[in-house]
Structure formats: structure tokens, C-alpha cells
Amino acid sequence: QKEVEQDPGPLSVPEGAIVSLNCTYSNSAFQYFMWYRQYSRKGPELLMYTYSSGNKEDGRFTAQVDKSSKYISLFIRDSQPSDSATYLCAMSLRPGTTDSWGKLQFGAGTQVVVTP
Amino acid sequence: GAVVSQHPSWVICKSGTSVKIECRSLDFQATTMFWYRQFPKQSLMLMATSNEGSKATYEQGVEKDKFLINHASLTLSTLTVTSAHPEDSSFYICSAASGLAVSYEQYFGPGTRLTVT
Asked: ∠ at Cα A72 (A43, A58), nearest 5°?
């Protein structure tokens, strides 16, 4: 079983719709949860991060973490064609954890296509 | 700020040859750099972690004699794929961090696509 599971998609939505993405994980020790956007043949770009459980909003993006269910989500409101990309979830242990400093565990990424 | 570059962006080499990929932090000093490999439609897999002036720490299953990592300065790390074979063809991405306090404070390069023929 992979530590982080993410549906690879593709997920196709019409412009203006809400994009809903999620990941599940198995390691209850994860404390930091991140969402990255990756355009084709480019490196990942950090969109949002959340520490422990809760919600976080930044513009059109909302990230949710439910540690009891080991489930994280990213919502994109009023989606635009420019949002078409692969979205990767990533998570890590708390700082100072032996031998795990800074290491990110990524999901497989979900390809999102926003059609005009 | 926080720009990381990689060179080359795309390289084709013949089987059995070696290829070097550079990762540079352009506007900050990177005490730690990470090297990832990404196969098509798959996740980024961490290969190794390097701290400036120290030997790299490799993840389980990554051959350290095949993937040589050098982090000789605070702005440059190199990954050398030695005796490359077609199965080494992949997208290699580095990330760089300065005095890493939390995991998300690392910045990714644009990646290098390696094709071994």
C-alpha cells in the first residue's frame, strides 16, 4: 500500500466550476500537508500548506485536512482554463523527526482539465 | 525570490555514457538540496538529500554509485547519472532549501528530462 493515495484522473470540469481534489494517507505521524501545482514538463509550485488539521483559504483555493480520517482535500473555486495542470498532494513529518527532515511524500498527482 | 534553476532542461545520451545535471539556487543559499525522479504519470520519488559540504543521503533502493551527488557550494548541487541505461530515462527534479525549518520551505527547479537511447 502506498503511503499517499491520489486519484490520477484526468478530472475534466467546465470553466467556472468547483474543482475538488483529495488524497488519503496511511501514516498518522504526518503533520504538514501541502498542495503543489505542476504544469507539463515543469517543476512543482507550492500552492498551499496546512499544519495539522483544519481548513485554510487563499483566494480561490481552500485546503482541508481531516487527520482523524487521514484525508486531505483541495477545492478550487471559479476554475479557469489556466488552472489546467497536475495537482500533487504532499505531506511530511514534523520538523526534527529523525532522518525525515524536510522529506516530502507525494501523491501520484491528479490531472485537471478546465474546459472553456 | 527563491528561484531554482536546472541545467540542462533536456538531455539525450547514449546507453553507457554519463550525464551531469546541475541544480542552482539563484537568489538564496541552499544548505539542503533534494533530488527527485518522476516517471510519466507517477509521483515524485525522493532519491537523495544532500547538505552542503557533506555526503548525500540516499533513499532505500537508490544506487549511490550510479547516481553521484555533489553539493560543493551553497548554490550548486550536481547529479551525475553514470553508465546510463534506457531505464534511467526520467524527469529529474531538484529542490533547494535554506536552513530548512519546515518541509514546505523548499523550492523546486524546473526539472531535467533525460532520455537514454
From this structure: 65
Q: For residue A81, give Cα distances in angstroms to A77, A85, A108.
A: 12, 9, 22
Closest CA relative to residue B63, chosen from B81, B44, B45, B49 = B81
Q: What pLDDT does residue A41 have? A: 82
**B32 inside 8 A of chain A by CB:** yes
Cell numbers describing residue B51: 547538505
Q: How far apart are the first and last CA of chain A?
A: 37
Mean per-residue pLDDT over chain B, rounded? 91
Interface membership of B77 toward A (CB under 8 Å): no
Q: Each residue of B94-111: b (16+ CB within 10 Å) or e?
A: bbbbbebebbbebbbbbb
